[in-house]
Specification:
Radius of gyration: 13 Å
Protein name: Response regulator
CATH class: Alpha Beta
Number of domains: 1
Number of helices: 5
Order of helices and strands: EHEHEHEHEH
Distance between the termini: 15 Å
CATH topology: Rossmann fold
Keywords: Phosphoprotein
CATH superfamily: Response regulator
GO biological process, one term: phosphorelay signal transduction system
Strand content: 15-25%
Largest sheet: 5 strands, parallel
Strand order of the largest sheet: 2-1-3-4-5
Pfam families: Response_reg (PF00072)
Oligomer: single chain
Number of strands: 5
Length: 129
């Protein structure tokens, strides 16, 4: 079975490391960066299956990051992961076939919801709980 590669783009260190540990328990390979700019650099040296993106990032915001990536990389999948309780998808993002339509809200009471979204995007029923 192929190991799913995740890039987590979030400037909240404690939450990021907790999510990384959880996903690694399911044999996922998780890398963390704290900005969109660092995510672009990371993608130049490694490829990922799913990018989990916070909206509020230093520098480029998460929405602009996803839109920019979609123009460059066709096969990437995205999950928006935000602390904004009233967030709704931008018009430009609503038509994206590679973006989960389920917005994951912080704080999470558990990480199962985000793992379920990864499995759904990848189509990996063997990797489900």
């Amino acid at each position: 079975m192929k190991r799913i590669k995740i890039l987590l783009v979030d400037d909240n260190k404690s939450l990021s490391f907790g999510l990384k540990e959880y996903l690694q328990d399911y044999n996922m390979n998780v890398s963390i960066v704290n900005s969109a700019e660092k995510a672009f650099e990371k993608y130049k040296i490694d490829e990922f299956d799913v990018i989990i993106v916070d909206l509020r990032l230093p520098g480029m915001n998460g929405e602009d990051f996803i839109l920019s990536c979609e123009r460059k990389y066709n096969n990437l999948k995205y999950i928006i992961y935000t602390g904004s309780s009233d967030y709704t998808l931008k018009k430009e993002l609503k038509n994206s076939a590679n973006l989960s339509k389920n917005i994951i809200k912080k704080p999470l009471n558990g990480f199962k919801k985000i793992k379920k979204e990864i499995d759904s995007l990848i189509g990996d029923s063997d990797n489900c709980d």
